[in-house]
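@channel sequence for tomorrow's demo:
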Amino acid sequence: MIKEKPKENIISNKSKKFAFRIVALYKTLRIRNNETVMSKQILRSGTSVGANIVEAQSGSSRRDFLNKMYIAFKECNETAYWLDLLYSGEFISEKEYNSMSKDCMELKRLLSSITATTRRGFRDDN
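structure tokens (generated this afternoon):
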């Protein structure tokens, strides 16, 4: 018997990898810069993206799914804000900023697409 390969969940995988990068950034900011305020904020928002995606995937309804995915999108926006502040304040290099920002924007695009498609589904049901 051939086992079927589990279906890859792109958004979950990307958000988990992003969360690991955020945790590493947090640790670096604490050690290298002794920075506590913004590092805690980006840790919260950056890891919250994936947590809300996981919650959405076990949501009790499509509306619950949409709400949690939209919260994940908003957390991504907040994370982008903290990345901008960290870069502007010279806590992270341009290379670090570009890399993290690219991943954050990719997650935002995916989440935007998911929420738009889900909202369209509600209109199609009426």
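heads up for whoever presents: The chain has four helices and no strands.
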